[in-house]
Amino acid sequence: MAVLLGCLGAGYVLWKLPEWQVGMWGLHLNTKHLLELQNSHRATLAQILGGVLLLATLCPTWKSIVVNQQTALHGQHTELFTRAIDQLGSEKTEVRLGGIYALGRIAQALKTTTRP
User: Fold this and answer.
1) What is the rounded (10 degree) CA torsion for 36, 39, 45, 47?
2) Would you write out the chain's pLDDT as a tens digit for each of its 116 residues?
3) pLDDT at site 116
4) Angle 19-44-29 (CA atoms, 0-180°, nearest 5)?
5) What is the CB neighbour count within 10 angstroms for residue 84?
6) What is the total count of domains within the chain?
7) 83 lies in which domain range?
8) Distances in whole angstroms, Cα of residue 61 to Cα of each of 7, 55, 66, 73, 85
9) What DSSP string runs through the chain?
10) Cα(87)–Cα(95) distance, integer angstroms
11) Nearest-angstrom CA–CA distance, 52 and 72
């Protein structure tokens, strides 16, 4: 509902504001030049509104991208941690040592990604 009202408000502004701006100057132009001037104002306003809309959508999109990347990174850390713990339970010394080194790398990665 808010989006519909916003679109209607923007349309009204795009239609009426140029008429008001051109009329406020008190210019005595023929109809053709008057309409061209109003349309030029409408084009400028449409570009401004489009830019504002673009900037308004960039912030939430950027935040969503960052959150998705962090979620994927945490999922990778969880998977690596699970594999390293499984390796610690192995009978082979080399595999257990690999699990210990994997846990060390995970701890180092978490240390560097969680710095304030």
Assistant:
1) -100
2) 877 787 788 778 777 777 777 777 666 777 787 778 888 888 888 888 889 889 889 988 999 999 999 899 888 888 888 998 989 888 899 999 999 999 888 888 878 766 55
3) 57
4) 40
5) 19
6) 1
7) 2-113
8) 21, 10, 9, 18, 36
9) -HHHHHHHHHHHHHHHHHHHHHHHTT----HHHHHHHHHHHHHHHHHHHHHHHHHHHHHHHHHHHHHHHHHHHHHHHHHHHHHHHHHHT-SSHHHHHHHHHHHHHHHHHHHHHS--
10) 6
11) 31
Q: Which residue type does 28 have?
A: H
Residue linked to tokens 């690596």: 80
- For residue 33, the model assigns a pLDDT of 79
